[in-house]
Automatic annotation (TrEMBL):
Keyword Transmembrane: yes
Protein name: Arylsulfotransferase (ASST)
Transmembrane helix recorded as keyword: yes
GO molecular function, a single term: aryl sulfotransferase activity
Superkingdom of this protein's organism: Bacteria
Chain ranges passing through the membrane: 7-25
PANTHER family recorded: ASST-DOMAIN-CONTAINING PROTEIN, PQQ ENZYME REPEAT PROTEIN-RELATED
Xref: SUPFAM superfamilies: Purple acid phosphatase, N-terminal domain, Quinoprotein alcohol dehydrogenase-like
Organism the protein comes from: Echinicola pacifica
Pfam families for this protein: Arylsulfotrans
Amino acid sequence: MIMRKTSIVILLVGIVLGGFGFLYYSTNNVRILKVELKSPDNSALKEDIHISLSTPSSLKIEYWKKGDPVKYSSPVTNKKVDHVVHLLLLEPNTTYEYRIVIDNWINKSTDIFSFETREASSWMVHEWIKEDKPHDKTALGDGLVMLCYRGYPGYIAMVDGEGTVRWYWQAEKLGVRLATITPRNTILALLAPARKDEFKKVKNNDKPDVASYYLRTGRIGFVGGTEIAEIDLEGNVLWQTNLEEKEIVFHHDLRMTEDSRIMSIYRDYKLYDLPDTQSELDTLWGDGVMIMDTLGNVTDKWSAWNVWDIASDERIKEYSGDRFHFNSVALDAEGDYLLSTPIENQIWKVDSHTGEIVWKLGKGGDFEMDSSAYFHFQHAAHINKDGDLMLFDNGDFSPNDTSKVNKLSRSLSFKLDTINMKAELQMETVLPKEYYTSRMGSTFLMPNEHILQTISKTGVTVISDQNGKVLWTLNSHFIPYKAEYVPSTVWNQYFKIEN
């Protein structure tokens, strides 16, 4: 008989499965001896089906939501006796039907059976989609949106176009600062204790500009992480490295390169005698790029202090606690670093071999460009799928001069002519005023040509067309640092759509 116990386990022994009687017997004498269903971690979103056969054979699972015409199929397993098939991206509190297909000269399938997923965990029950906001689910295509909660307990969630959480992973003791999909279809996450950021103290009478207002300070800084972890799509931690023990702080960005190395921005300091200060030597805080292997060994690093002319820097005293505030790092086609430095309102290209700054893009930079394309306190600079440099322009924020306040955020992309040093604006997607965010945020050009943008300060993620029309809005109950698009191809090793 089929019985779902409180531990979410169904045990089917022998050739009896529920009231369906004889389960399966082929001309090759392959019998299903046992079928066991388990929900790992009591999850509502995934189910493992354990199958034991009498004779080594390959198999697959065909499954679907009851009453839904869309059917899924797991990959065919290797030929063996004991099999575990992982069903992922399930919907909570939903009945699924399935059958086991023995892959042989002549495929044979069982009768149709069913299981029901658990109700969603309480933290997932939230008005992710608001009916009074744009919510065209087709705007997302067949992908998901991944975002992170950096409070405690921290988690990573993937949400579909209808606002249903389809995948999640929860940290045991830390918050999740940010997460990204790696080239090997795993998740790389930056973890940190909640509320451990250090900010520059601002006096009540001060009216700082955006740069000094959002400065971090000290070793941990802002959006600093103390651990990194790689997590597979089944939610297993493959490895975890404690950065704090190595006296390293990663912040703002984290990526895995094509050769499976870890790249991030790290906090670095320099001792320097600033004029008109009481101390003989002052500690200047800045940033660099660090490369680490998955065992936690540092294989390469670059520091901005090694190429920075401190003596000629007129702002070094004001920004001594956070001179560069790098908030994103990416590789270009040549394998060089692309760094966003919002204090300078520029993107820098740094030669990853020599460490020299090759060029600067933005106001006061090396490229000829229209002044209307200057960006301010930008984030998420990267090369998009069209080969253009793309970034999220937070927008001009100048509280000292209210006549110049332009509270609009936008996504920009540039085609760079590095021979004639000209930057041609390819895309300018200006968001409506209600989606302005003075800090954080990200942008990504999706496969369907729509743009996924994170409006961190207001706690929303939007998909717009390239004219800035908002098509879809995801409402979170926290401030997402950045959301990432997860394409359906990530799941190819787990399932495919049959129809």
